[in-house]
Amino acid sequence: MGIHVVLRHQTEYDFDRLVQIHPHVLRLRPAPHCRTPILAYSLNVEPARHFLNWQQDPFGN
Questions:
Q1: Residues 31, 16: contact at Cβ < 8 Å?
Q2: pTM of the model
Q3: What CA–CA distance (Å, rounded) separates 33 from 61?
Q4: Which segments constitute the Bacterial transglutaminase-like N-terminal domain (predicted)?
């Protein structure tokens, strides 16, 4: 019997005036080589108009 873990992360920005949205770098995806099996993973980004670019660092993360 293994340990089951649920993680939820939310980053939210709130500004007092209108701002432009610029690129951000977020590393929130499980590494494909992790020893613990990932049963489910999802990523939701708002606003709906966004661009995702998956990258790995030199260590494969």
A1: no
A2: 0.48
A3: 8
A4: 7-61
